[in-house]
């Protein structure tokens, strides 16, 4: 298993180098340029040339790239032209909110999607199977922002049982040593603050997790249907093994590989793509800050946040590969 993990880690190096080069060149190919973004309305040709000389933007791209990579390794992602704060500081401030939201969405998607997909496959052709297929199609097609507004209208405005936006009640007296509000409430001995933060996660978590839920249901259903018709499942049934053993050891475990792939990809997408959900619910996370920075042409934030998101995707895929090896030992020897 150790050799398997080391091989996967070795493959990450060229991937990350290639991603960083593409990102660096792409950002500099955007219209306007970093100098114009920093100067704003004062972007005269003379001022632009002066800023380029000051920040080394007039040097060849490969020299700028090496300087930038060196700064990244030292933890320096630049300074936001919009907030005048270090990009790393903004990243550490906003990312915990998005992690909480993404975990809530994924717990909802996996906790509902895997059992529903499994039972739909076991009841193939029944009303439960048809209902799960129709529901998954509805979940994939409905826009996230529309679902978010509908959830706010029903559960926040009409029923009044859940908060509409934000991460926590502004009147709540709570400490935030880690930035993860639910965890902070538990660590500081303030269960009321933890519960309040958790209730603020319900509506955006459900809205964000609807599409992953629909995908997980369909993939689980299809994978379990394939495994149910395998010879080793029929052999296990013929040998008289207990149904619980057949379901757990032979059916569900072998059906999990494609499901794990989808879960891993969706985690990366949720962490990097919660822009609409965070905007609808005024959730001050990674995605909303990224969207505001794009509108303000904040190139330092854009570059640093996209690089961070790419690293998250790569690490999540590494975890998926490791999960493959744990679920199916044949993958480690392939």
Automatic annotation (TrEMBL):
Annotated compartments: Cell membrane
Keywords: Cell membrane, Membrane, Transmembrane, Transmembrane helix, Transport
Transmembrane segments: 101-121, 133-155, 197-217, 255-281, 301-327
Ranges for domain ABC transmembrane type-1: 95-324
Pfam family, one: BPD_transp_1_N
PANTHER family reported in the protein's UniProt record: DIPEPTIDE TRANSPORT SYSTEM PERMEASE PROTEIN DPPB-RELATED
Similarity field: Belongs to the binding-protein-dependent transport system permease family.
Protein's name in the database: Peptide ABC transporter permease
Native organism: Planobispora rosea
